[in-house]
Amino acid sequence: MCYKSNIAEWQFASDITDENERLKLEQSLVAARFEKEAWKNITSFNWQPFTDPDLKRKFKLLSVLGPSALPEDKLTQYRKSIDAMEKIYSTAKICSFANPGDCGMNLDPEITEKMSKSRNFDELKHVWQQWHEQSGGKMRHHYEKFVQLSNEAAQMNNFSDTGAYWLRNYESDTFKEDIEGLWQTIKPFYLQLHAYVRAKLRAHYGEDKVPKDQPIPAHLLGNMWAQSWGNIDDLVTPYPGKSSIDVTPEMLKQGYTPKKMFEMSEEFFTSMGLLPTPPEFWSGSIIEKLVGKEMVCHASAWDFCNGKDFRIKQCTKVNMEDFIVVHHEMGHIQYFLQYKNLPLVYREGANSGFHEAVGDSLALSVQTTKHLKEIGLLDKSTPTDHEATINYLLATALDKIAFFPFAYIMDKWRWDVFDGSVTSADYNCHWWKLREEYQGIRSPVTRSEVDFDPGAKYHIAANVEYIRYFVSFVIQFQFYKSLCVTAGQYDPHNPSQPLHECDFYRNKEAGAKLGAMLAMGSSRPWPEAMRAVTGQDRMDANAFREYFKPLEVWLIAKNKELGEPVGWNSGGLNCQKNPPPTSTTQHPPPVTQPVGPKSGGPTVFLPHGAWILVAFYSLLNLVV
């Protein structure tokens, strides 16, 4: 059942057709019936007094059914709401700024490349506005229906709302407060980065477009969602004369292919004594966009529940950004491999953030100048002096630090929606209130409650919880620091061994420590898994601050030197309940065939949702 459900999902994601969509829905309803029957059996036991901690944990995890608790007619509506939003997102096309008659621009690659490479203020505004209209703008009524049904499902699982249902994964009564505390630790650094980037953008675009003490226009940061700013490195790099760590030109020169990128990633894992991928991975994965088919290009890793079939689906391009994404996805695969022999109920990450952090922890090692020299992608004579170090850390910060407030508000907004603090009458303006308050960005054009800008992001449309990425971006530095110390590559008391230069490639001791944690799956609460690899039992942003300390010191001094104000004043929220005058922007014709991939942002781990089917009855065999 689990395998069949995931195969149906895979077929649709890799070949978007009406028939595959029908088969996916049909299979999901079959699975839901099975799940519900098993759930009724599990919840008939009075398991709370059980004294065996392992058995009690299994019952606790299996006693939550999820959306399948809904009556079948409502479950069908729920699934159709999400499918409709995903299809809108996947099929969205916009018209070209330079050639208005060309209305066939997809998110990936055309729109993504335009947002990353164009430096034309008006073109970027046009692309930003059209994407938001053609994606999120068309799914608002679907989202309203989804919220109603999703909350109903959560309540049938004994949670107050969907937000509370999501947070069960973190097994903490203070999780929201913990996240806010982490953000407050990171925020001073973010404010310094924001001020510096704003000054550089103002120098390029002019003060009339980027005012000195105002939020940054959202379309100028190199990414449709302003979630990572690495694509504007050319505008903000502190020392332009120094060599870049973007090794894309060298990868192309050496004839890298998507397959070689995956082979290089696997070799990094196995060099640490971690597990190789099975033959099924190479025969089943899709690592390049299929010719002649519309597919979901948003990279994802898949576990087909049988202990041997693991796959990645990614429309890989030969560049450094995708090289890092490959390591992220291979981190998911390594987690699958390590816990494949556990009972199905435990074949998950310690929490969702752990699954996202594994590959990224290794990617921090991969992207160091030391490692890039080792694998021949960077000339061994490339200097690593102070200026080069600041360039490197700034380039890394544009992706890592800039991401935190976006990751926070993605779910902070949904928590407010799910618990009723924000009604549908305020969906869009509340979104922009949070984006200005936490990110310090503004929409480039006036927004209204006719718009639905949250839906312009894949994870909203596809109903993927997002705080996992905030957690991941904290704990990946905790993992990285611990593995670096284990490998003898970092000593906080030795200036010649800074954290940002650590490369634990080929270190078996670091691999053994990481592998032991991965093999635990979700069999123990996540603080115990954290302790296994870091010696700590809580999330802590100190490793993050240690890594970036030289840059933080430099940014504070540079902003003082430039006289750049830190923070921003609100010029009034650029959102109104009543719609602005009708846009004269040209729109593409209606789409009748599913076209265009999903893309953008951290890659989503698609869980093997049907594991619960087999796990239910496996557990019943133990207790009946």
Automatic annotation (TrEMBL):
Cysteine pairings via disulfide bonds: C95-C103, C297-C315, C484-C502
InterPro entries cross-referenced by the UniProt entry: Peptidase_M2 (IPR001548)
Pro residues: bias regions: 578-592
Protein residues bound to Zn(2+) 2: H328, H332, E356
Binding site for chloride: Y170, R468
Family annotation (Gene3D superfamilies): 1.10.1370.30
Cofactor(s) this protein cannot do without: Zn(2+)
GO cellular component: extracellular space; plasma membrane
CDD domains documented for this protein: M2_ACE
UniProt cross-references to PROSITE patterns, sorted A to Z: PEPTIDASE_M2
Swiss-Prot/TrEMBL keywords: Carboxypeptidase, Disulfide bond, Glycoprotein, Hydrolase, Metal-binding, Metalloprotease, Protease, Signal, Zinc
Active site (catalytic residues): E329 (proton acceptor 1), E329 (proton acceptor 2), H459 (proton donor 1), H459 (proton donor 2)
Residue span of region Disordered: 568-600
Family: Belongs to the peptidase M2 family.
Descriptive protein name: Angiotensin-converting enzyme
